[in-house]
Amino acid sequence: xxxxxxxxxxxxxxxxxxxxxxxxxxxxxxxxxxxxxxxxxxxxxxxxxxxxxxxxxxxxxxxxxxxxxxxxxxxxxxxxxxxxxxxxxxxxxxxxxxxxxxxxxxxxxxxxxxxxxxxxxxxxxxxxxxxxxxxxxxxxxxxxxxxxxxxxxxxxxxxxxxxxxxxxxxx
Length: 171
What we know:
This protein is mostly helical. Helix content is 65%, strand content 0%. It is rod-shaped, with a radius of gyration of 30 Å.
């Protein structure tokens, strides 16, 4: 009575033991490199530097958010081939934070704020191209971003120049 059960069990066991092993499928992970073949600094225009005397003239000495934001752009210009998308994400966040920060009274004007909004828009555009690995679109977008960044700083410089040529009030 137990003999047919043992024979059947051995048969089933040998059937599974002798069957070919199933192949274990391995999933190949492809890494997407967030890089550009040439250094960014070669492809982008030079950044405008604010004259040192402008900080005091326009009450910008305590404007740390501007300093941090400008440092972020300068660091980005030194970026070589890795981390473009990641860096643009950080630059986008820093630009958003900067645009919401308190501006010195003399610079809290439409011409300055509007130029900053254009820089923010260009940052987002470049971020999109970097995310989608569209190199042929990314370099011109970065060039445009830098030109608008320079335009923003040049507008601050012109406000400082306008400040120093305004006629003094007569007594």
